[in-house]
Amino acid sequence: MRDAPIGVFDSGVGGLSVLAEIQRLLPNESLLYVADCGNIPYGEKSAEFIRQRCQVMAGFFQRQGAKALVLACNTATVAGVADLRRDYPDWPLVGMEPAVKPAAAATRSGVVGVLATTGTLQSAKFAALLDRFATDVRVITQPCPGLVELIEAGDLHSPVLRELLRGYVEPLLAAGCDTIILGCTHYPFLKPLLKQMIPDAISLIDTGAAVARQLQRLLAERELLAEGPARATRFWSSADPQHLSAILPLLWNGPGEVGTFDL
Q1: What pairs with residue 234 in β-bridges?
Q2: Does residue 184 have an active-site annotation?
Q3: Nearest to 116, CA basis, from 137, 139, 94
Q4: Considering the domain boundaries, does residue 200 fall inside one?
Q5: How many CB atoms lie within 10 A of CB 157?
Q6: pTM
Q7: Chain segment 175-192, per-residue pLDDT in tens
């Protein structure tokens, strides 16, 4: 069971940013990744649809013998993680949430910006995070329609992307934000471009590393940490697998074999 793989999924390629953090912290672990590209973006789907997709993913990874499941998607976590924890009480499950707590602790100006999908910003879970951790800071939220689709296309630096991103970032800078939360797993891929747009003193915070640490803790508690060596990471896409194969070298640490996920 120690050498069983870890399942990770997202609505698309964004969760690869989380997968990289898991691989960095837990290099002995074998990893499975499903990109539900045929249904992206989740942020525009109903909560019931997303819950159903989460159940499909969980069933798939159970059949693959996964010892743990990571929901590398903020929107999927909001909609589906509670049901999965109810249905799989003995299965280590880790979800995503915007890094409101560390951002509130890090800010010096008292103003925190959030770049996220509309679905995440409108969720009750995000509102609860603000109520719990951001009572003493001002939080400026910025929905970012269009960014996910461009990243899914492998676009990390075109003039179109640059203009779109600048339009989302400039209101946060004008409001005095000194800390910006990347509230979608796709957005860490834009860090190099973001750093060209913001002063050096502004912090960018995402939760990929924290998710990897939480996964490590849950596996250690259950004595499930792998001793290695890790097997090659396996990938699936619910859209054209050739598209994911083509952009994997851009977003991952190398190419990978991509299968068709057609459940």
Answers
A1: 32
A2: yes
A3: 139
A4: yes
A5: 11
A6: 0.93
A7: 999 999 999 999 999 999
